[in-house]
Write a structure and sequence with these properties.
Elements: H1 3-10, E1 28-31, E2 34-37, H2 60-82, E3 88-99, H3 107-122, E4 129-135, E5 144-152
Parallel strand pairs: 3-4
Antiparallel strand pairs: 1-2, 2-5, 3-5
Length: 155
Amino acid sequence: MSAVEAKLAELGLTLPEVVPPLAAYQPAVRSGAYVYTAGQLPMVDGKLPVTGKVGAEVTPEEAKDLARTCALNALAAVKSVAGDLDRVARVVKVVGFVASAPDFTGQPAVLNGASELLGEVLGDKGVHARSAVGVAVLPLDAPVEVEIQVELAEA
């Protein structure tokens, strides 16, 4: 077990299986020292635990937990191409999308779920730049979607 996966276990989490693509793309691709993930939905065992707009059908607190799940799914996607999460030198960028009710403006707080998970699991390597974007709708009516870019250390 990698040190990163041991840290996940310490937090009571396990790395899930990679979420299969919903269309014509790969969950993650490597280019040089970087891994780019596709947008990761908060899928658990192949299903969305909740759907709808944040600030309407989904509370900001629920959405923050869903963003954590998205980040966990993104780490699984990174591992699928990097082979070992201990190779992550740093998370460079996180981009999060929040399906928002028209008057909802708390996207940054929702995306803290993903950012905080990455920090808890990776420590200083998890500190990153980030964008939090409100959108009208996401695939499958998901409340949140997260993608990450990581730099790998040499093998």
